[in-house]
Design the sequence.
């Protein structure tokens, strides 16, 4: 089984709102000084891929990213947790709201690699597109499973666990397929060993070139919303007093 | 006359999500001077079609087939694609529930478009017929306005962001649509586990008590359960609490969890990341309990308690007990 995991490099989503700024005169956030990280659901997707590989003899995990050279950092992180191969599909142009283009490039890479299982995160933590994996299923003409939390080899194919709005379901499907992964306690990405992180620095990152195609959405404006909430700090010397005062205020506000 | 198509996947009766789609569709259609239509899919679509008519859709596109008795992406996609080819809508609306999330991008791709997921509001231009949708990006730290000028604009609306439609008396015309083929489900269902919540559903609760990383472990959720129980509310959680395995993922509140809008949202040991706040910002009163006075949650909460929840919650529970 050739498992391909799609990893996107993004501005650290944990950056607090007070430090979030826009590039002057441009519809894009200021990147200076903001750490770049692997998008969080992609970490979950990677873990799902690594766990599946452990259960399937001969399976390999290939980490793929679309982006500029600097995006190779996320591939090194994947190599550090023992992904077998790392591939970058170059895309120099600005990639905001271009889920359709990116999906096309990833589809090209999937074909070239002969992948039979493609794993994506449910939503990238920068532009919050929430669709590349699903478009990819259409591009490849493969079945797509959504909100997957884990995959096991089964007697007749792959067994996928998927979240529902309330509860979950277990599905069986045959490769090739696309699985869009969401977070779960069972797929938090493992931590790389220091020696593997060092070794990953020396590993090769391959490159696959695919011609970009398709349109993008048209961004008309980007703004930082103004929030005007004045938090009233509940007074009190200790927990009991604070609880009393909080209770009183909730009654006064007529919400209790 | 152009058409705004709302895609409804319910069987039998309309869910709150569908009512929101119809409500939003109604106002978009009014702005554009368009007709509101609904796509209904299933083995038996009569009842749901009638309900959609009662709630404002004046055209019902029904795809009725025994194979479509239960939702599955491939089959419902084929049905919707056939409806769109038949009626050539200007706007196609979904809600970002589990089916809407996966259908919108895939249908858009089939129609040669890119979908916009998780929209909060819109602005229509009657002259040009183009619509600008607003969607949070960077976890809500910024708002993007996206111009959808090519038809159809395929959009998934964030839950609890649009007023649900109200019943009205109007006659709806029903058009039966036959897809050229309905593909079988590529997946075999092995097991479906519907989570049974003992008390009130998280999304319907008037009081939500949520816990985060600051709780330090699963056992401490018992305090939250107790308080929520006393107030007839429900327990929620941050993503970190879910990822740590302290609570089930159906309890996650936020951008990629449940969207709640209770009277009281009590955030305990939650830092207030914008991705979390996206799920509770519609609450009447947000109350934060956090040891760190600098935590961003205090920038979103109406009432704040700076302190250890272990010292604040037990006396609060006592107070509530006294009241009862
Ligand atoms: C694309 C994307 C989507 C996401 N979707 C979601 C989502 O849907 N929902 C969600 O919740 N998150 C989501 N996140 C994650 C989010 O960014 C944060 O990482 C997460 O919400 C933080 O959880 P937390 O507040 O529990 O933990 P932390 O940020 O670690 O905060 C813990 C808080 O507890 C306080 N604390 C510690 N001890 C105590 C004590 N004894 N008493 C009181 N307070 C104490 C600390 O001061 C701190 O403020 C998403 C992230 C991304 C990138
Ligand atoms: N530039 C990219 N490179 C690799 N994978 C990507 C890229 N953009 C998106 N993806 C994948 O698609 C998922 C959904 O992205 P999005 O639709 O942009 O929210 C992500 O979680 C990744 O798995």
Sequence:
């Amino acid at each position: 089984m050739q498992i391909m995991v799609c990893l996107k490099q993004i501005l650290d989503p944990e950056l607090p709102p007070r430090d979030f700024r826009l590039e002057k005169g441009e519809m894009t956030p200021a990147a200076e000084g903001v750490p770049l990280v692997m998008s969080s659901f992609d970490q979950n997707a990677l873990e799902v891929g690594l766990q599946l590989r452990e259960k399937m003899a001969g399976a390999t995990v290939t980490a793929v990213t679309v982006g500029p050279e600097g995006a190779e950092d996320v591939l090194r992180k994947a190599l550090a947790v023992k992904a077998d191969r790392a591939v970058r599909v170059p895309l120099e142009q600005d990639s905001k709201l271009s889920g359709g283009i990116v999906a096309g490039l990833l589809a090209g890479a999937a074909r070239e690699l002969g992948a039979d299982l493609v794993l994506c995160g449910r939503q990238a933590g920068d532009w919050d597109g929430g669709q590349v994996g699903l478009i990819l299923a259409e591009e490849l003409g493969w079945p797509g499973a959504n909100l997957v939390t884990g995959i096991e080899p089964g007697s007749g194919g792959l067994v996928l666990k998927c979240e529902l709005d309330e509860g979950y379901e277990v599905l069986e499907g045959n490769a090739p397929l696309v699985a869009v992964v969401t977070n779960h306690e069972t797929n938090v990405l493992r931590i790389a060993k220091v020696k593997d992180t060092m070794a990953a620095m020396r590993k090769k990152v391959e490159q696959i070139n695919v011609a970009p195609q398709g349109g993008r959405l048209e961004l008309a404006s980007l703004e930082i919303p103004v929030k005007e909430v004045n938090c009233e700090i509940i007074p009190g010397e200790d927990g009991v007093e604070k609880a009393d005062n909080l209770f009183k205020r909730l009654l006064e506000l007529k919400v209790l | 006359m152009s058409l705004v198509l709302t895609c409804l996947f319910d069987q039998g009766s309309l869910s709150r999500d569908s009512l929101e789609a119809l409500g939003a569709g109604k106002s978009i259609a009014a702005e554009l001077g368009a007709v509101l239509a609904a796509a209904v899919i299933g083995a038996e679509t009569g009842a749901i079609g009638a309900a959609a008519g009662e709630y404002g859709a004046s055209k019902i596109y029904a795809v009725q087939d025994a194979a479509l008795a239960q939702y599955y992406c491939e089959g419902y996609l084929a049905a919707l694609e056939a409806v769109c080819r038949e009626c050539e809508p200007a706007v196609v609306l979904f809600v970002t529930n589990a089916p809407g999330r996966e259908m919108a991008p895939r249908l858009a791709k089939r129609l040669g478009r890119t979908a916009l997921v998780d929209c909060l509001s819109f602005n229509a231009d009657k002259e040009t017929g183009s619509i600008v949708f607003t969607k949070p990006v960077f976890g809500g730290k910024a708002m993007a306005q996206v111009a959808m000028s090519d038809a159809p604009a395929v959009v998934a609306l964030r839950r609890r962001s649009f007023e649900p439609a109200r019943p009205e008396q109007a006659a709806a015309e029903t058009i039966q649509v036959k897809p050229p083929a309905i593909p079988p489900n590529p997946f075999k269902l092995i097991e479906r586990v519907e989570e049974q919540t003992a008390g009130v559903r998280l999304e319907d609760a008037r009081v939500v008590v949520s816990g985060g990383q600051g709780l330090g472990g699963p056992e401490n959720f018992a305090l939250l359960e107790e308080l929520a129980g006393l107030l007839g509310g429900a327990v929620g959680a941050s993503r970190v609490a879910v990822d740590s395995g302290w609570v089930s993922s159906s309890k996650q509140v936020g951008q990629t969890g449940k969207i709640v809008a209770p009277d009281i949202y009590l955030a305990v040991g939650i830092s207030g990341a914008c991705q979390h706040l996206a799920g509770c910002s519609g609450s009447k009163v947000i109350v934060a309990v956090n040891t760190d006075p600098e935590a961003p949650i205090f920038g979103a909460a109406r009432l704040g308690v700076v302190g250890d929840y272990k010292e604040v919650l037990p006396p609060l529970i006592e107070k509530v007990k006294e009241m009862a």
Remarks:
- The first strand of chain B starts at residue 3 and ends at 8.
- Chain B has eight helices and 16 strands.
- The two ends of chain B are 58 Å apart (CA to CA).
